[in-house]
Amino acid sequence: MSKYGGYEDQEFVADFYDAEYANLPHQNIEFFIDYSRKSGGRTLELGCGTGRILIPTALVGCEITGLDVSPYMLKKCREKITKLPREVRKNAYLIQGDMTDFSTGEQYSLITIPFRPFQHLMTVAEQKACLKCAHKHLTKQGKLVFDVYHPFLPRLIDSTYLMEMEVEPPFNLPDGRIIRRTNRTAAFHRAQQYNDIELIYYIKYPDGKEERLIHAFPMRYFYRYELENLLSLCGFKILEFFGDFDKSPFSDDSPEMIFVNEKIG
Fold first, then answer.
1. Cβ-based burial of 202 (10 A; exposed 0-12, middle 13-18, buried ≥19)
2. Domain 11-151+222-263 class, CATH top level
3. Of 105, 118, 91, 95, whose CA–CA distance to 33 is shortest?
4. CB contact at 8 A, 38 and 15
5. Torsion of Cα atoms, 95 then 123 then 259 then 198, to 10°
6. C-alpha span between 135 and 263 (Å, rounded)
7. Across the chain, where does the E strand assignment appear?
């Protein structure tokens, strides 16, 4: 099983990504764009993927650098950037790198980790390494903004989730393939605070051929005060804490934990 959830070594994940997440609510994109606008400087996005947030951020005139470990995701992102107007292209930069060990030679007013790449860091050592790298790359009083999901307790213990579930409609790729995706929890690891996750793709080709592919990865989950302590240890002060991208207060029923932090020290 790969270190970063298979994004770096399974090309089909990048092939499906944009079509798969095209219908996600755009609220989280606007959330991160707003912080880039307010930062007054450059943004570094860790785990930028195919540019779902990076490209809209560049389109509104913000300068943003995207770092990702996956050459396949970055290739998709680069292809999309080349189709943008020249004045937008100059706002977007891409770097292949490891979010736990990177050095861009630059500092940024804002660093973001959108859509849960932080949950692919399985160990405390990896999590601290990522936060310390971010701290080093921020300007004085620079901001770090990231989201993780708020654990839904049945998904951590209920054997129902060990079976395949279909929770979204099929989607089409430009080449005519039709993709149906299911998901399941392959195993619970409560003592280590992670689940083994499988995203299962059933592909039907225009010629009638069918294929089944599995994207398997471990997914770490966090609790609020665990992250508060980790951020404090790594030189951050929490400025805002939300339960969703509408900036609602965190509560028992919140789907997200969103931390807005300021560099100290």
1. middle
2. alpha beta
3. 91
4. no
5. 80
6. 6
7. 43-46, 64-68, 92-96, 108-113, 138-149, 171-172, 178-189, 194-204, 210-220, 236-242, 256-263
pTM: 0.96
Cβ atoms 212, 55 nearer than 8 A: no
Residue 1 has pLDDT above 60, yes or no: no
Contacts of residue 36, Cβ cutoff 8 Å, sequence gap at least 6: 43, 57, 60, 62, 64, 110, 112
Q: How far is CA 232 from CA 89, 104, 107, 262, in A?
A: 36, 24, 21, 10
**How many angstroms separate the Cα of 115 from the Cα of each of 21, 51, 85, 139, 240?**
11, 12, 26, 23, 18
Query: What is the residue extent of each domain of the chain?
Result: 11-151+222-263, 163-220
Task: Quote the CA–CA distance of 238 and 229 in Å, as a whole number.
Answer: 10
132 touches 104 (CB < 8 A): no
Token output for 112: 């973001």
pLDDT band at 23 (very low <50, low <70, confident <90, very high): confident
Specify the residue for token string 């292809």.
79
Q: What number of residues does the chain have?
A: 265
**Could you give the residue ranges of the DSSP H alpha helices within the chain?**
11-20, 27-39, 54-59, 71-82, 86-89, 124-137, 154-157, 224-233
Q: Is 51 left (phi over 0), alpha (psi -120 to 50) or beta?
A: left
Q: With bands split at pLDDT 50, 70 and 90, how would you rate the model's confidence at 3?
A: low
CA distance 137 to 262: 12
